[in-house]
Amino acid sequence: xxxxxxxxxxxxxxxxxxxxxxxxxxxxxxxxxxxxxxxxxxxxxxxxxxxxxxxxxxxxxxxxxxxxxxxxxxxxxxxxxxxxxxxxxxxxxxxxxxxxxxxxxxxxxxxxxxxxxxxxxxxxxxxxxxxxxxxxxxxxxxxxxxxxxxxxxxxxxxxxxxxxxxxxxxxxxxxxxxxxxxxxxxxxxxxxxxxxxxxxxxxxxxxxxxxxxxxxxxxxxxxxxxxxxxxxxxxxxxxxxxxxxxxxxxxxxxxxxxxxxxxxxxxxxxxxxxxxxxxxxxxxxxxxxxxxxxxxxxxxxxxxxxxxxxxxxxxxxxxxxxxxxxxxxxxxxxxxxxxxxxxxxxxxxxxxxxxxxxxxxxxxxxxxxxxxxxxxxxxxxxxxxxxxxxxxxxxxxxxxxxxxxxxxxxxxxxxxxxxxxxxxxxxxxxxxxxxxxxxxxxxxxxxxxxxxxxxxxxxxxxxxxxxxxxxxxxxxxxxxxxxxxxxxxxxxxxxxxxxxxxxxxxxxxxxxxxxxxxxxxxxxxxxxxxxxxxxxxxxxxxxxxxxxxxxxxxxxxxxxxxxxxxxx
Length: 568
Known about the structure:
Layout: H1 2-31, H2 35-38, E1 43-45, E2 52-54, H3 68-81, H4 92-102, H5 115-134, E3 144-151, E4 157-166, E5 172-182, H6 201-213, H7 218-233, H8 236-244, H9 264-274, H10 276-285, H11 295-318, H12 329-347, H13 353-375, H14 383-389, H15 408-417, H16 426-432, H17 438-447, H18 455-467, H19 477-492, H20 496-500, H21 508-521
Antiparallel strand pairs: 1-2, 3-4, 4-5
């Protein structure tokens, strides 16, 4: 309460200081040395026509002219009292606010509205922005709706209602239609939603026991990386020495995987591989050998990266929120099946125990992927097949097998009509050929608007987490809904450069994960990963053999990541 009160007083005082600074400048130019006289009075004459006016010099500023030092002190008190990061001063929105207030007329400074006034303005703007976005929806076009639920740290349950459509200019639009509070019994499982941050003696004991057991199973290697991550993050006395091993501009640290976050295990392993030399040096120099990984375990990480890289690429491709994605689903399923089949053939030639275990896991993942693929047959309207057919880069090429022989006549006619296609992006293609194929165009506008995944809704919950933090635990559900609608309407319209301004408010672990994901998307190829070779290993299959892969085979014989374009 005191923090809010001071924030309001700070804004009022800041505006008055800026106003006085403007007044001083104007009066000095008009009255010169007589300014000292006017300082003793509350009533002054208008600088233009001489009419009586009251100077905005009150008790809050003690009648003193603007002082940069006093202004800095007020900013410092505002930042520290409200527990804001110092970088908030450089926030473009904050600077625009100060600049706009300073540009007000000298004798008519802006006033700071009450909290109720701002809340009312929030409600008005939310409705206006939502209506403006929906006005972009062409006549007779449809909106695809996605639903998902989220529970705040205070036990408040909400349902996010997100709409997707393609506007008249063939731009893919996302709009938050509602963030409705849910009442009644709500069940949630917050466990495993966040990375661990505490390191205990029990964890150290388990780590030492695992190191002494010389276990070479994949789960133990993954747990070793997780233990090392928590161990370094949990103490600045360990984190700082680890960072000092690197160049100052690098500043990389391990990231921990979280079960509810897509690709988090791949990013954890990828980061560990990037900073392998620093991990080895850290464990040796500071005698943390029980947390060190041997060459065989680093080889396991190479295998895991080779196997999971395509899943990372395709997940990003299907998680785009600024472009259509449903036409990629069947193509990606096929590529993943090919990747798994090729990997299984290579692993079948191995005799090392952990590689044989990896083959068993790969067969289980193949069965799981097959189950998910079967679900596409039961989707209403066969959406994925339909989106694939109207994608210009396919033109029925996906349906050349004998299973589709009954549709051969229509298929050939359709392909001839698209013979001269040069632009294979669905939205740009249908924008250009909207009047050439009006019926198919209307169909394409509706079905391509359906997102392939719920990644858009999931990303909203990160915004909700930032709103419902502990200092704001008294927010009413209706206020949370309006804040979400306001922030997400702004977020959907942000350009890439503007969105980067908000990264400074992420927590450290989020920043590290975001850095690793961006690094991977950038295509930087400075990381050497030994791929799975075709070499057949000899020996007794019951023994845990040393890894004897020969990585000198041709590139055609190794697992490579077959990736389509990642989102921009």
